[in-house]
Amino acid sequence: MTISALEELSHAWDEIRADFDSLSVDAYDQKVLDCAARLAADPGGESAYAWTLGLVLMAPYLAWAIDDTGKPEAGAALRATDGALRDRPCRHDQHPYLDHEEEGDLDLPDQLRGLADPDADWEENHSREEWLCPRNVAGFARIALDIIEPGSAEDIPPRLPTGTRITIDTLAAVLHGYPEPGTDLSYVLSSPALDLSLADPQDRPGHLLTVCAVTGYAASDMFEETSVLDELIAAVEQTLPHYAQAACAHDEHAAPPHWAPDLAELGIILSSPGGRARYELDHRPARDAPLAHLLCPAFLTSLAEESLSTLRARRTQLTHGRTASASDAP
Description:
The model is unreliable at 323-330 (pLDDT under 50). It is built from 15 helices and no strands. It has helices spanning 3-18, 26-41, 48-64, 71-85, 108-116, 128-132, 134-148, 164-176, 185-198, 204-218, 226-239, 260-270, 273-282, 291-294, 297-328. It is mostly helical.
């Protein structure tokens, strides 16, 4: 691969990274398929680093896509690369992938071009040799896999699933009372109920916290859609039996955030393996509740019952108000 060819590709891959929420674009799909095919053809070769980092850049697009175009091919190529390179001999004490977080994706196009051109300036924290090390390439292959299939890889820095920040910001704007223009309030407020009803056991606590966070707004005078209340109520009712035998040995539970947007963000973060791992890494003992307390069944039962009572009371208030109004009509 020539330096000029890689420069052109890196710009194209970065465009896809920045435009990851476009759902499905034929030209993007073709770039993914071509990159995956090149990697699959020689997963342990000298150019594997370039195709692997290309898939890291395009992985958010694959994760967000509404169909599976490119996902099987990319996944197979990345697994082959990890298998071919992760156990190669290595004399390095550290590798760039070990401290590569989501923000670092912004720098990958420039780093790619610098890796391809040994005469280019190189001012990175890690040497070119460490970047090109087979074990480092394998690490980045696992990063790409984890972006496409959250929770599918180990020994990499945890990150939130693609689009999580969009979800957090959208819900925060609603709970602050200033939704973005065009926001479908019913959809935003009912989505946590659907997520809770479909959640795996390990993700259920986070989704329950998010439902508790939206309860105040959904049950306030600012909102009067009983269908949304019904969805939230049903989701909590469906969840409580999972904690029917709730018990714990904690002397007390640290209070979760009282501010609804903060509680919603916490719930969304704790609803994924990467989010829970990030919470533990960023945990500040003096300010943050221990993760074990937030996941405690007894603690969650108390919050769920409080939310359910609030939602039911608002549902009754709206129903009775409408009945009375109808009966007063001439």
